[in-house]
Amino acid sequence: MQLSHNSWQAMARAKVAEIHSKIPKEWVLPDTDLAQAKKQRNLTGPFMKQFLDDEEQMIIDHDSGDLVESIKQGTYSAVVVTRAYCKMAALAQQVNNCLHEIMFDFAMQTAEDLDHYYKSHGTVKGPLHGLPVSLKDQFHVKGYDTTMGYVGWIGTYEGSRDPAKVHQTNSQVVRELLSLGAVLYCKTSLPQTLLLGEMVNNIIGTTLNPVNQLLSCGGSSGGK
Length: 224
Fold this sequence. Notes:
This protein is mainly α and about 220 residues long. It contains eight helices and five strands. It has a three-stranded mixed β-sheet, sandwiched between helices. A two-stranded antiparallel sheet has the order 4-5. Helix 4 (about 55-60) packs across helix 6 (about 80-95) and helix 6 (about 80-95) packs antiparallel against helix 7 (about 105-120). The N and C termini lie far apart (about 35 Å).
């Protein structure tokens, strides 16, 4: 049976294609690596790090406090840190289907602005200056969908198609994070309505446990 372009299945497929289209070409894994990923029980640690250079591995291995301090001391720029986190998120999405929104362009622009602020003022913008932060897909970020796993919320504001509302709102937590210098780079997968202990929805399907692919990653913060 041929599906209508307006069917929910077609809407979901288009959204998935949109997500993947935002992965930079240089970070797209070849089919051989994707096939190897499917054979892995544990996707974390050495398997993922093989795709990162030494500096990117060091950045990813830092805890949040040390990373913020390193940026404050000028060891790393916000752009370098953000790029490493965006690359890791792009890799994770390809092997474990864990993102609803890729916001790399927004993240890199934010990081560039923060680096300019640092150079101009000789200090950081706030206590989270340059720290990459992912969000569950329940928080609004201007310019991006917030679906909460609902197919019917794709391209809308909580189901409304009012152009004065669609993609025009930042949630309070988003405003707070940005004011503190955080860099928002992606929105992670969650089950429809968030009220489920498994990460599955009708937009992207299922996210599995990256440590053990034989298990669920749980919910509602599945993509995290």
